[in-house]
Batch of 2 targets.
Target 1
Amino acid sequence: MLAPSPTRPEAVAVRDLHKHFGALEVLRGISLSAREGEVVAILGSSGSGKSTLLRCINLLEVPEAGEVVVGDEAILWRARSRGRVPADAAQVDRIRSRVGMVFQSFNLWSHRTVLENVIEAPVHVQRRPRAACVAEAEALLAKVGIADKRDHYPAHLSGGQQQRAAIARALAMHPRVLLFDEPTSALDPERVAEVLRVMRALAEEGRTMLVVTHEMAFARDVAHRVVFLHEGRIEEDGPPDAVFGAPRSERFRQFLARGG
Amino acid sequence: MSALTLLGFGAGGWGAALLAAAATTLALALCGFAAGAVLGAAAAAAKLSGAAPLRALADVYTTVLRGVPDLLVIYLLYFGGSTALGTVAGWFGATGFVGLPAFGVGVAALGIISGAYQAEVFRGATLALDRGQLEAARAVGMHRGLMLRRVVAPLVARTALPGLGNVWQILLKDSALVSVTGLVELLRQAQVGAGSTRQPFTFYLAAGALYLAITSLSTWGFSRAETRARRGLP
Amino acid sequence: MIDLDFLAATVRALLAGVPVTLGLTAGSVACGGALAALAAFGRLAGGPVPDGLARLYVFVFRGTPLLVQIFLIYYGLGQFRPSLQAMGLWGFFREPYWCALLALSLNTGAYTAEILRGGILAVPHGALVAGRACGMPRLLLFRRVMLPLAARQALPAYGNEVISVVKATSLASTITLLEITGIAQKLIAQSFRALEVFLCAGAFYLAVTFVVIGLVRAAEAWLAPDLRPRPAVAPRAA
């Protein structure tokens, strides 16, 4: 796909991100940014830190060092005796509501119907009028192809339908950036395509997306940029043609040879 | 007099008195259950997230209250409370035995007893929460209070409902023990009737039937609530 | 602040109630167990009449307070004293101990029946089919397959039921029996030192509760060897 113009502003950026769990260093200085409208596929074997990277962007994990910037707002930090914490909880909530997250295991709220899942945050976090949220939610559900499931509970949907509902839930917040954390890894093979189709449509609309995935075809055909993570560092970063055509990193070559 | 006249609503009938006493039983149980919910939620919170001393305190509370007869707890509160109050009254120059309001003692006792059971129910339901759904709430920018109200509380309540139904049934039947303090609830009223008419079997049978009616209604109510709450479960 | 002499005297006085509490517990657990087996059998294998009777029994005794049941038997049956005397049963119903034992047995029997039924219903069908497939006769199948599997399923709930019987024996004090709670109530009324007496009496009950928990754990380990931790196997020299 045609990459967005390099003059467009950055929608999201991290600089020199470090994160460890106990003795295990998961991120060792990651710098990455996405311009508005850019689709970045993040590849890497399990344990490479790619999910942790996404979770640091909306602060589900707190990185020990480095900057996180969403739009023109950088997260403010406050030092603690051990490490640091975000200085302003309201800022964290504000930034999270601008970043849509789609999880591997969907994480729909099981006590609410599909429609209720979609309008929950717009009504209660963003405090928008309910009627408008419902109308918009119905349009979003139609867009992801499950308009007829609006009054179903998540447990009564297939995995693919649940994931599309979760995408509608993320879109309802009008996010500036969409984060996808292995969105098709928990799905039966025959359900993967329906979710990828929705994601491709979103990319074509010009949404800013960071996608952690194992779907090589998606990375090659839909993403503007491909990033390969290995042991907490970025080993490859470039347009898919360049990265897949002439990989510079030996590890990425091995990764491709193993089939991702 | 025949049993029917005795338990009827005419002259010399005890029907109205028994029904009023059944209402007292219900009020006692409801207040005790509410008090127990507050205590139980606090104890569950202490067990799950509190500092070590709080956790130990909550563990002692639930272990002791679930291992010691409820009657003993009622005696402790009734006599112990009166003694404590008498001591305080003594400082202000009052003398003699100070009686506590029996309804209050009953509510406190039932609350303390059922709180120990409700704590376990709440703890189990909280442990059964799906972490992913909480993470999704954080990811859309819900602050703690909103997440507690819109996601955690409804999910916990749904899982806890069957357990709470059991605790309620136990509590209803336990409320009969409060009759030892002299509070005129259902069993006490039956005792009074039995004493003054010398027809104990008739009165205790009537009381038993009323308890059975209340517990059956409760079973029905809880199973309806569970059906409602199970919406959305596979 | 702590009056050791008073505590010692209290413990000594309460000790006299221990045999009554334990006797009532053991007696009603045994009789209640037999009743429960009968009721569970009636519900599972007995045809409509035994099933209906067992249902009614469980419904009535689980739906009313134990204290009402005790009063009904001890005080209530006094209303029929002449007929009971004529039947030669008055000697039994005159005694608070036997009345308490009867009420406790009937009560715990109703709860235990449901626990037993649940345990039996939880036996996997496949295990029974497998038994039949290798030619086990009914009784052997019941004894070697059904019973052990049902018992381990029902054991935790049954342990809780035994503990609640221990606690329930305290209600015998309301019909003049001097078991632990009855003695404790007398001591409190005499001394007005509710907390000290409560702590001593509570300690007795907790001790019994812990013994029951220990027994249930031991029974669990015995019935469910597959749930024990794996024995550590020493690595063999190559």
Target 2
Amino acid sequence: MSDLAFFIDYSRCIGCQSCVQACGECDTHRGRPLIHLEIVQRADSVQTTPQVCMHCEDPICARVCPADAIKQTADGVTQSSLKERCIGCSNCVMACPFGVPRYYADINQMVKCDMCYDRTSTGKKPMCATVCPSQALCFTTLEDIQKKRRGTTISEWTFGDEHVKTKVFVVVPAETNTVHIDQLRRSVSPTSAGAKPRDLYDVAELLEA
Amino acid sequence: MARPPLPIPELVHSYGPHAMRVPAGGWNTIGEPDKLVKTHCCFCGQQCGIQLKVKDNKVVGLEPWEDFPFNQGKLCPKGVKRYMQNEHIDRLTTPLENAGAGAGFRPISWDAALDRTVGEIRRIQQSYGNDAFAILTGASLTNEKAYLMGKFARVAVRTANIDYNGRLCMVSAGAASKKIFGIDRSANPWSDIPKAKVIIVAGSNIAECSPITTEYLWQARENGAKLIVLDPRMTPIARTCDLFIPVRSGGDIGVFNGILHIMVKRGWIARDFIAAHTIGWAEVEKSLEKYTPEYSAKLAGVPAQMIIEAAEMWGPASTSFLMHARGIEHHSKGVQNCMAAINLVLASGRIGREGCGYAMITGQGNGQGAREQGQKCEQLPGMRDIENPEHRKYIAGVWGVPEESIPHKGLSAVPLVEAIHAGKIKGLLLLCFNPMVSLPNQQFIGEALEKLEYFAVIDFFMSETARYADVVLPGSLMEEDEGTTTSVEGRVIHHQKAVDPPPGAREDWRIICDVAKRLGAGEKFSFSSPREIFEELRVASRGGISDYYGISWERIDQEKGVFWPCPSPDHPGTPRLYENGRFAHPDGKAHFQVVEWRPAAEEPDEQYPIVLTTGRVVSQFLSGTQTRRIGALLDQYPEPRCEIHPRLAEKLGIKNDDFVTVESRRGALTVRAMVVKTIRPDTVFVPYHWPSERAANNCTIRAIDPISNIPEFKICAVRVSKAQRPTNAMAALAAEAGGIS
């Protein structure tokens, strides 16, 4: 797959679901989108986040699979479970720190994003990153991203004591090195002690300024 | 008698809308396609490049087209799933005749359908005069079809009354741009957007209505641009912008004039540019005196500080881009709103050069081109004026008819329907328009249609409006025909034919030419292909504002689109207008316009204390007659919801997912509530893509802008109350037909 890589920039996402619709058009799993688009908390905000498989260097889903059904390609792409091996136990579903694998009862198998291996292995871009109108999902070189985007890229994650390095990069504000998933806090603007923090996404509060 | 021959649920049962969730032949049967056809999306004005997979004369899938410069492979969900309307179970494949109450529609032959239509045109015109037969068309038609419809009305039917659904879309922006700059077109190619240092997006939910523009904005921000968004709702673009101004619907002039007032005070006016290239500034400057931040803030319904901050971003910037859409245009002062926005651009002098510009975001597929070719009631091809003797003479020459035989200005869409209601217009031919979802005050529109003595509809599906028809003629989808459209950038592009129409259906232009022949105008409508129509269109546009004379289909294919004006075959086309301060008025100058705020036709009051504003969702397109039939799109947002702020919801005792009735003086709808902090607490929002008891346009007002005649979709007064779940026959329908899921 040469030096092309997959980048996610959550701040760009507009929630249009083109990625979901296009994923459902991929030849290998047509009719079944494998990317997830999360609506974070619609009552509070229009924020949405797309989630492709992060393709861990040492994939946790594969490590916990009792049937050894989840394989990684030589170039580091973790694939869907092998149909003849998958026993449908859903260990992978529960173990994945990014919530990617899903078990589908109709085919009694875990299938997941494989970065459009059928497309990327023939020089095409993944379907979702090709169509993404906001380029929150982007398939390009690291050099291109560094040239065109203000943020920095990270591919290391800390979940408590678990450290994960992924093939997929996430674009975050400059100066960020690692993201501690267990320590995420709600972002609020500075405020005087004791006062209710201002909700920057509540239109009524904005109008009261 | 034009009225639905059966109760709506029975018509839905036979003709849909049915949401198709699996493509023809299933998900797994494609194999290798026979061909990949490089063409464009049929939906919005972005006109993204796309490749359709064709097998056995069926569109079976898509492949992104990464080489097309505008979207480079990017597509919104509508573009991804557009192929699913081909081979649709609801597709009309035979002419249908309304057999009267209780009898439904029955198939008839093409000859019988065309003969009856021509007979009725003649009867009505002989009894009531030529203008008693009207034509309504659409902005999703190709340039060739738009041109043909204008000529058909004036030469074959000889009625003054032809207008189109672009009247609900681009006319405010167009009128404003023409008044100030002299041309009705976006001034810049989209490639200028990432080079701007400050961008104002006014009244445009870009993420949902023109999603491909998003990346242009994000690129600009990566380059350090500041983004200012005006909208009563915090849209996805507004969520992360640098300054979100939650303006009240109809308050935009407060923001624009307020910014300009501050620019005058702080010395951020491009006085040299104004002196050299414009007229009318002195009057504007004088009119701005009263628009202090405090006064402006009151009009806009936002804190004054927001207007000051906007001025501090926009005023001193080195480069800038302003874009707007229906949010400021769908008002009875829509033209004024747009002119106030354009004044901001002009006073900064940042127009006509790299990274400096202005755009109106075209809504419909051929929203740009379809308003140039002469199917508007006041217009002849090439954006010519139907009342200008020179223009009439030129077009009469192209058409080979006496100048005096060309009718004069007719009625625009809303007054035209009002004339039907008043019994002045007795017959109607409608193509590419679905007023029974898209026009305001739906009850009135239905009453009007029922008064027609004869109503013929050309459509590929039985739209909500076609149910009223005496005769329905099955037309063609975009991919079943060939032709050109003109995109949001003013880029003329080529839609390739992918498949033939199904047996029984016909290309729209053939139907029109057949009617023209039967009306005795055959020699003027002897076209045997859309290309022949384009060749005549080129000549008809020659010397006009939208001059296509130098454009050929070969050039379009080679150059991936050509920007008009392109007056000669060796002309490169014009991606950027107004370079070197040369504007399009005869004096070469831009004409500033004084803009004063005025209230909407119906502001909230004690009885109806809440503002209703309407708009779109990303997964549906316009009246939904196409996109409600595509299961994957429908399921993304199955039925309309009423967005309401938690503070207002609490006051009304409404919780998320409760049913609510939204009621105006004209009608009501009942939908689920969506309680969100992302909307002004004095405003509710309902998207308009659904029919009957889920139609937002039951409530909207039939007020129009006096210049552009655009309806005031963006503000009317309503009350909102908690309701029981509807249980009637309409509610029992599927969501795609206006039911409750």
